[in-house]
């Protein structure tokens, strides 16, 4: 089982795709050009503070709003290892899987962690924080394979012997 440890950034409920990447920045040339503006309506400094391997812990309905494929791409480009939330908007969930961003649903962790805490995730098993273990729902193996490959296109290229 894959396991990783990282620092937590805590966000609230209903973080929509307009908060993740505001519409006015979608005209920029690349995802890398957009990343400095991630979460800017909520916390303008956050994108610059996130380090590779960090994790976002949020409330309910993360990724609601428009079906904006750039939203999970930007979170991944920031180096976020996974997003753990009470719940996710369905289209955001699928866009995230297709882009290789791991999402984990857990309804208790947000209330237990503080920003800057360290957590350890064991994929398809649990989350450990300060000696407490939080069970997580397992993802089907085909989705884990897509995430591990870096997204749907990369997974299909691998499956078909193109890479």
Descriptive notes:
By secondary structure, this protein is an alpha/beta fold. It has a single domain (3-138), classed as Alpha-Beta Barrel (Aconitase, domain 4), CATH 3.20.19.10. Helices cover 31% and strands 20% of the residues. The protein has helices at residues 17-20, 31-34, 46-49, 70-77, 90-98, 109-112, 141-149, 152-159; strands at 3-10, 55-58, 82-85, 102-105, 118-122, 126-129, 132-135. A 7-stranded mixed β-sheet has the order 4-3-2-1-5-6-7. It is globular. It starts with a strand and ends with a helix. The relative contact order is 0.17.
Topology:
Blueprint: E1 3-10, H1 17-20, H2 31-34, H3 46-49, E2 55-58, H4 70-77, E3 82-85, H5 90-98, E4 102-105, H6 109-112, E5 118-122, E6 126-129, E7 132-135, H7 141-149, H8 152-159
Parallel strand pairs: 1-2, 2-3, 3-4
Antiparallel strand pairs: 1-5, 5-6, 6-7
Helix pairs in contact: 7-8
Discrete helix count: 8
- Judged by helices, strands and strand pairing, the structural class is alpha/beta
Give the CA-CA distance, first to last residue: 24 Å
User: What proportion of the residues form beta strands (DSSP E)?
Assistant: 15-25%
What's the story with the biggest beta sheet? 7 strands, mixed
Radius of gyration: 15 Å
> Ranges with pLDDT <50 over ≥5 residues?
none
Please tally the β strands and state the result: 7
Q: CATH homologous superfamily, by name?
A: Aconitase, domain 4
Task: State the name of the first-level CATH class.
Answer: Alpha Beta
Mean pLDDT: 95
Give the H and E element order.
Answer: EHHHEHEHEHEEEHH
CATH fold label: Aconitase, domain 4
Strand order of the largest sheet: 4-3-2-1-5-6-7
Q: Using the 3D structure, state the CATH architecture.
A: Alpha-Beta Barrel
In which range does the helix fraction lie? 25-40%
Q: What's the structural domain tally?
A: 1
Shape: globular
């Amino acid at each position: 089982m894959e396991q990783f440890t990282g620092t937590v950034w805590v966000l609230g409920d209903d973080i929509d795709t307009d908060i993740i990447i505001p519409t006015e920045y979608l005209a920029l040339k690349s995802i890398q050009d957009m990343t400095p503006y991630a979460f800017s309506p909520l916390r303008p400094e956050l994108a610059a503070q996130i380090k590779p391997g960090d994790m976002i812990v949020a409330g309910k309905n993360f990724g609601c709003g428009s079906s904006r494929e750039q939203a999970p791409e930007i979170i991944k480009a920031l180096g976020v290892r996974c997003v753990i939330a009470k719940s996710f908007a369905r289209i955001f969930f699928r866009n995230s899987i297709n882009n290789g961003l791991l999402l984990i649903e857990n309804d208790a962790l947000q209330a237990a962690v503080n920003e800057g805490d360290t957590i350890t995730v064991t994929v398809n098993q649990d989350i450990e924080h300060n000696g407490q273990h939080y069970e997580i729902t397992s993802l089907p193996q085909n989705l884990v394979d897509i995430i591990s490959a870096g997204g749907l296109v990369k997974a299909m290229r691998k499956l078909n012997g193109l890479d």
